[in-house]
Amino acid sequence: MSETDAAWIETALTSARPQAVGALLRYFRDLDTAEEAFQNASLRALKTWPQNGPPRDPAAWLIMVGRNVAIDEVRRSRKQQPLPEDDQAISDLDDAEGALAERLDGSHYRDDILRLMFICCHPELPATQQIALALRIVSGLTVKQIARAFLVSEAAMEQRITRAKARIADADVPFEAPGAIERSERLAGVAAMIYLIFNEGYSASGDTAAIRKPLCEEAIRLARLLLRLFQSEPEIMGLTALLLLQHARSEARFAPDGSLILLEDQDRSRWSRNMIAEGLALIDKAMRHRRTGPYQIQAAIAALHARAATPEETDWAQIDLLYGALELAQPSPVVTLNRAVAASKVRGPEAALAMIEPLAPKLANYFHFYGVRGAFLMQLGRNDEARVAFDRAIALANTSAEAAHIRMHIDRLIRDSQPKEKGKGENKGNKGAKAR
Amino acid sequence: MLYAILCYHDEDFVGSWSKEQDEAVMKKLAVVQDKLTSQGRLGPVARLLPTTAAATLRKEDPPLVIDGPYAETKEQLLGFYIVDCKNLDDALDVARELGSANPGGAYEVRPVGVFRPGGNLT
């Protein structure tokens, strides 16, 4: 393995891609032209790097070559006559490359990458198209790879991406350097998109988790990249921390048969210590800014789980408080539902049940609502009502793993057909609460 | 003489390694490290978390804390080795050997002035 290895060059191209395509997009103001220019530059790289070794600054090299090739093509088509082979010009590039690219892009690259990510978040694009487009354009995954991760055919994915591109081609893409308010709006949009990519991978069921894992890894890569561009943004620290802390558990989340293992049953020795360390370091840094936000709060909750060596050591009171803060920052019935789970550990199932009753109209078709409700009722010994809730949950389950999990509860109900009064702190029946 | 071998590389690039690529590099590096250990020449080794996890304290009055690494550079300090070497040539040989296991980037080879191994950390 050396730097001139094909796999190694691929990695260099992947890591240079956001910056290079972003700069080419600013230059050509057209996504297809920018992508094509990058593609052509990559082909040259595959041809020349194995002989000459990679350039010191691959992104700058790709931007220069991409620009030159595209400009030549425009000229060629205008003059209708072929130009001489210009490999010579390109091999001279190395000397000038650094200084030139610096002048061209040094001050722009932050906004270039942000713009590139931002155009994928166009509000007219449905979430699935946003994610597919970002993975194609920003990450440079092939249509085949994306189709595989989404579990759809290559043709269907091709169509989805083409449609998304057509939509943004008509839209106004802002090419001026953004002002402070605009920049922070873009940042928020991009953060949400990265979170979507992560969730697309994270919400996979056991049998597809391995296939979809690259989505989680790619989201983390993009979040780190964004954070490197905007080092002092506490919400971007929070986002990156949240993704790392959740992904740290990925090896422990599924049993060999593909069934979901809940947080409190997971083998915590299989959690990735490295990812947890990085996540905790980031949330630590973010908190210093005292500008809280939903990603930071969610990361702080994930951090409390990560810090607990055993489920019993989980600081539920603090988690309850954090969900309370999240309810204020981002009110949603799902947040209240999660808070009720924490509340049940602190104040008991009766109080928790009272918290979620008002949510019934809004969450009438939400699997987790009935799973949680059933678990609270079971803890209270109201087994008949619990059974009704669990049956409803199974009807609403999104994956076979979810349904199987609820069935486990029902089996337990049948086994413990004698209703028992369960005390506070004995949370065996509460497992439907957090399917994480 | 003790030398610090400081590892610089583009962390976007290193962060784009697949798990397999990362493991392959670590395995190759371990061979070099094991050899140095068996010769009794290897001191502390550290691989640092990404610079996004870093904070910098500028010793102004009052001290100023900023997010991120000390310097914004194209290549970042990603880790270091402390190795006992006869002289600069010897240290450069070690760096070369590490470099063939982990291509790309640069090693800064720098003699150590004061060294306190600590020893109560694991």
Keywords, separated by commas or semicolons:
heterodimer; A: 436 residues; mainly alpha; 20 helices; 0% strand; elongated; B: 122 residues; alpha+beta; 4-stranded antiparallel β-sheet; 30% strand
Topology:
The complex is a heterodimer of chains A (436) and B (122).
Chain A: H1 6-28, H2 31-52, H3 58-79, H4 87-91, H5 93-105, H6 109-119, H7 127-137, H8 143-150, H9 154-170, H10 180-202, H11 209-229, H12 234-247, H13 273-287, H14 294-307, H15 316-329, H16 333-347, H17 349-356, H18 367-379, H19 383-396, H20 400-415
Chain B: E1 2-9, H1 11-15, H2 19-38, E2 42-47, E3 55-58, E4 64-67, E5 76-84, H3 88-101, E6 106-111
Antiparallel strand pairs in B: 1-5, 1-6, 2-5, 3-4
Textual characterization of the structure:
The complex is a heterodimer of chains A (436) and B (122). Chain A is mainly alpha-helical and 436 residues long. Chain A has a domain at 3-110. Chain A has helices at residues 6-28, 31-52, 58-79, 87-91, 93-105, 109-119, 127-137, 143-150, 154-170, 180-202, 209-229, 234-247, 273-287, 294-307, 316-329, 333-347, 349-356, 367-379, 383-396, 400-415. In chain A, helix 13 packs across helix 14, helix 14 packs antiparallel against helix 15 (316-329) and helix 17 packs antiparallel against helix 18. The longest helix of chain A is centred in the N-terminal third of the chain and has 23 residues, at 6-28. Chain A is elongated. Chain B has 122 residues and is an alpha+beta fold. Chain B has helices at residues 11-15, 19-38, 88-101; strands at residues 2-9, 42-47, 55-58, 64-67, 76-84, 106-111. In chain B, the strands form two sheets. In chain B, strands 2-5-1-6 form a four-stranded antiparallel β-sheet. In chain B, helix 2 packs antiparallel against helix 3. The longest helix of chain B has 20 residues, at 19-38. The chains are: A mainly alpha (436), B alpha+beta (122).
